[in-house]
Request: fold
Amino acid sequence: MNWLGSFLIAVLGIAISLAAMAQKTPPTRQQVLDHLARMRATEKGMMNVDPKEGEYLSDLVKKLNAKHVLEIGTSNGYSGIWLALGLRETGGKLLTLDVDQGRRSLALKNFRATGVEDIVESRLGDALKILPGLQGPFELVFIDAWKPDYKKYLDLVLPLVPSGGVIVAHNVASHPDEMPDFLQAIRTNPQLRTDFVNVGPGGFSVSYKK
Reply:
């Protein structure tokens, strides 16, 4: 093979490598936001946070410079993607739990589509059984699952959260009657300082561990 043939092969190899790299380019933030909008439009019945609530979660990750985030209640991955957008900037990871195989499968597809699958670990199972085996620490815990079990989740995650860490719970404004023991606990536990944030219709409790 003469030098010209070798040169052309080398150029072709570089072109193929560049094309492969281009295919692996992660979605832009706008593309992720567009996908999130499509999820809300087409994936019904998922009890997702409001977009403004999702943005609040993402900003909170960055404010805390969180490296380890735990989510109880993956659903279709909507809130997990918002959390992951923040974690992409802090260099952190998300562990998300859900008991439903169908929702988890849908979430995994959405994590891949938005390019965050490398920073998200999804576990299938009952959170009440998984949580006792976790080590922590988690600088941020987001609870958005079966409302009557919120107090149980709180009791299990509190030891996993370091001082200065935050436990956020969704639907405290929209479903307070389903979690009275939880609301009482976050208001009275001396380890916690709790604010209530209403950036969307569900409402958040934001409990800082002292």
Q: What stands out?
A: Residues 27-209 form a domain with the Rossmann fold fold (CATH 3.40.50.150). Confidence is low (pLDDT under 50) at residues 4-13, 15-22. The radius of gyration is 20 Å. The first strand starts at residue 68 and ends at 72.
